[in-house]
Each structure stands twice: as C-alpha cells, then as structure tokens.
Specification:
By secondary structure, the protein is an alpha+beta fold. The chain is about 60% helix and about 5% strand. The chain has 15 helices and 5 strands. It has a 5-stranded mixed β-sheet with strand order 2-3-1-4-5, sandwiched between helices. Helix 7 packs antiparallel against helix 8, helix 12 crosses helix 13 and helix 13 packs across helix 14. The protein starts with a helix and ends in a 7-residue tail after the last helix. The relative contact order is 0.07.
Length: about 350
C-alpha cells in the first residue's frame, strides 16, 4: 500500500491538531464530522485500521505543534482518532449488514428456487458453491429455533471447517433449523454434519435429501430432507438420522390419498367401537409391528404384561376380522397403521 493512498485520509489532520492544541479547545462538530467521513471512506476503500492508526500517529509526531502542551496535543489527537475510528466502524457495520442481507437473499432463493437459475449459479460462486454439480442437503432440527450467529450453528460450522476446510460447503439456518449443502460426491460431509448437529442440538434429528443435479437440485434435496423430518414426526420415528432414500416407500403409499384413507377407515375403523376408544389398540398394533411382531418386546415397550398384550391382539382380531399373526392380514394392518399415522387418524376425520 503506497503512502499516497493513506495520506489522502489524513487530509487536514496536522492543521486540525495544531489549531485545537493552541488553545486547548475540543474539536468542533464539523471537525469531528470530517474525520468520521474520512474514516468511512477509508473503510470503503478497504484500507486496514492498523495501517491508518499508525499513519495518524506518525503524522502527529512529525507535525507536533511547537509550544503546545503535550496534554492538549494528545487530547486533540485522541478526539480526532476516535472520530475517524467511529466513521470507519460505522462503514464496516453497514457493509456487514449489506453482506448479511445479500447472503440471506441468496439462501432464500437457493432453497426455494425463486430466482433465475443461471443468475443463481453465478451468485453461488461467491459463496463457494458450484451449482453445475450435483448437491445434497441435510437439515437438522432441535428443541430450539436457531439463527445464524447463534452458538449452536457456530459450533457446528467450526467443526466442519476444522475437519474439511474449504470443500464448497454452505452451512446456514432456515426457519429455525440448521441447513448444510454439500457436493453430492462428499457424503462424508453430511454424515459428519449430522453427527455434529445431533450433539450440538442435544439429540435433535437430521434429515438428508438425495443428491440432485443442477441449481434446482438443491431445492429438491432440501425439500426431501424436510419431508424426511416431517415423516419421522408423523410416524413417531426417533432415529437421529433420516435419509430420504430410505423413506421412499411412504410417499408411494400416500400418493393416492383417498385410497389410503379408505384402507385406514375400512381396516381400522371398527376399533372405534372398543371401550376406551381406538387409540390403545392402535398403539398396540404400532408397537407390535415396530418390534418385529415379537409380542414380548412389544409388551415391554407398552409397559404391559404379555398376557395383557395378547388379549389386546385378540380384541383387534375380533373387532376388525384381521388377525395380526396372519401374514396376509398383517401386511394390511401394518399398511393401515402407517396410513393412520401419515393421515393423523383418528384425530383427523377421513
């Protein structure tokens, strides 16, 4: 950096110190404003604060007013430097706010596909993404909502950067969740993100979308990750990591919603006649299927004796006409139970 580049931001500084220290007066409002303005301009030009401060102090030593008391000179120097630094910091804060707004706008456009894909790909280069490649997205949720700059996202980001460095990874937050976008051929990044997010969110869940090509692929993978989390909530799945590729059967089952609703009502509807309502018997079937149709394990999960659990299975058989122990009936009942969870039946009428 040349001396001339710095000197332009010291314009009038020596004269200002001499005038103020001659009488020991404070700098006027106009004088302070001029220093603030020069500080803003220096920040916008990208000059370093340490270099600028050193130049100011050197100018004060070189142009030390003759006959002025050291106290008055130092007071004028301090006021001038303080005003200059205030303007510099003000410009930096404005630049940071502008950069944050631009980054947030890019992230919204990236995850919702609301921008021209060609322009989006150009903007992505600025944030280290190459949207001509395939990407996959992981989304983590916890007990709390997270914003960029919060301790939890920062901790996860530090861990990722420490492990992988610059690998064209984007870590951000959206709607209170942590979001990680990584190249599709680097599955280890999302796996590591899931591990770190699980720990940082105190046992939250992570959904991982399938790798998808192009700028629009990020949107699709992001939606798959969100859908994986939603399915886990509806189905009561507590696994810490949920991959959309492993859950493809569920969208298939609900593609014809009316057919699934008919199956649920026709198969499980008779359980509404049970004393105490259908929910205990629905829970019985869910536990039975989740435990691999092992009555002893299912009974343990429901805190029932095996005898009480077997009685419930028998009651289900009598009410529905479908025997959970029969392979053919079992498939129908299990599909209906999945449908009931997905459609939130019986809380929602079908």
């Amino acid at each position: 950096m040349t001396d001339d580049a710095v000197a332009s931001y010291l314009d009038g500084y020596a004269r200002l110190i001499a005038d103020a220290s001659a009488t020991g007066r404070r700098l006027t409002r106009d004088e302070l404003d001029s220093r603030r303005s020069l500080g803003e301009q220096a920040a916008e030009a990208g000059l370093g604060m340490r270099t600028l401060m050193a130049a100011h102090l050197a100018a004060a030593r070189t142009n030390w007013p003759t006959g002025a008391s050291p106290e008055s000179v130092l007071a004028a120097v301090a006021q001038g430097l303080d005003a200059f630094a205030e303007g510099y910091e003000r410009a930096q804060r404005a630049a940071v706010r502008q950069e944050e707004a631009a980054r947030r706008e890019f992230i919204d456009d990236l995850l919702y596909g609301r921008s021209d894909m060609g322009k989006l790909a150009e903007r992505a280069e600025r944030y280290g993404l190459r949207l001509s490649y395939a990407h996959a997205v992981a989304v983590a949720r916890g007990a709390a909502a997270y914003e960029e700059g919060d301790p939890t996202p920062r901790a996860v980001e530090r861990a990722l950067v420490s492990r992988f460095g610059d690998r064209h990874i984007l870590l951000t937050t959206k709607d209170g969740r942590l979001v990680c976008v990584a190249p599709a051929d680097q599955d280890e990044v999302l796996t590591f993100f899931a591990k770190q997010a699980y720990a940082a969110t105190d046992g939250g869940q992570v959904g991982i979308g399938r790798p998808q090509p192009g700028p629009g692929g990020v949107v699709q993978s992001y939606e798959e990750a969100l859908n994986a989390l939603e399915l886990a909530e509806r189905l009561g799945v507590g696994d810490p990591v949920l991959r959309a590729a492993d859950l493809l059967v569920y969208p298939v089952l609900t593609r014809d919603r009316q057919a699934m609703a008919d199956l649920v009502v026709n198969t499980l509807g008779p359980l509404q006649k049970a004393r105490g309502g259908p929910q205990p018997l629905l829970d019985t079937l869910a536990a039975y299927f989740d435990s691999g149709c092992v009555s002893a394990e299912a009974a343990r999960r429901l805190a029932l004796s095996v005898r009480a659990f077997t009685y419930r299975l028998d009651r289900i058989h009598k009410l529905t006409g479908a025997d959970p122990a029969d392979p053919v009936h079992r498939y129908t009942l299990q599909t209906a139970i999945i449908g009931a969870r997905l459609l939130d039946w019986p809380a929602q009428q079908l």
